[in-house]
User: What shape does this take?
Amino acid sequence: MKRTNSKEVTLSVRTFERLRTLIQKRTGLDFPDEKRYLLESRVKPRLRAQGVSSFEAYADRLETDNTGEIANLVNAVTINETAFFRHPSQFEALEESIFPELVRRHQQHRTGPLRLWSAACSAGDEAYSLAILIREALEPRHPRLEYEIVGTDIDTEALDEARVGHYRKRSVRNVSSAYLRDYFDQSGDTFVVKPSIRDMVEFRPLNLTDARDMRKMRNFDLIMCANVLIYFNKESKREVLQGLYRSLRPGGYLFVGGSEALGELEVPLEAARYDGALAYQRPTNGSLPSRA
Ligand SMILES: C[S@@+](CC[C@H](N)C(=O)[O-])C[C@H]1O[C@@H](n2cnc3c(N)ncnc32)[C@H](O)[C@@H]1O
Assistant: This one.
């Protein structure tokens, strides 16, 4: 029989409860009971980095921390899976229907630059996909169109990667060979986003569950907030969606993940269906009780 090492550091149910409450309050991310071992494996390296020998000591330290360890914890527990053009039918809907509509509206109402936000952008793949699409689909037809593309995430390490713009083959699996040739430099196994695309996007830290952060994000024509709401509990999800709603211009569009649906969450967004993709539009006359 395999002997267990009595000194092995494990995450007790009680300390799991402390850590998950702290993470939930700070990020909205929900770690249900069955994810205790996942949390344990993600947090364990932070014990060594902090020079503590148990999860209990680590949790104590976090409660009085003023060294920024909480940010390291957040970086350690986020799930950053992403890819360029991750849900291809969403980008087709953008190119064929949504961008033309947004441009028409901008030309009619002179609302300033077209504003696009990749919320929870991880290593930047989605934000750069938007930049490539603008360059390909909008700039040739509307050379004077102004736009802003912002990528935000709570994970500061992912944002550092995004700013550098180096990717593995897996991340660019949905990128056509023509786009790979035109918008990336290849160095061995690494695909490097060309500066002309990199310079189109600004990356900033932002916590979707922080009302102060969210108040700074206003007047977006398009928000992509994919594959993150699934990690929040119902209450956080509702708050984040209300924040995203307020961040959209009337008539602006929201995409969530390709297999996510919003359901009943008290947000007056209207479903807009495209071939293989579902977007949500803020009605031109819709409103929520204002908190700003
Ligand atoms: C699975 S990735 C999705 C990336 C990209 N949106 C996509 O669909 O490919 C989830 C991202 O959400 C970020 N995230 C988690 N909680 C967050 C929060 N409260 N505020 C902002 N970003 C958050 C994580 O750091 C991670 O990069």
About this structure: The two ends are 62 Å apart (CA to CA). The chain has a mean pLDDT of 93.
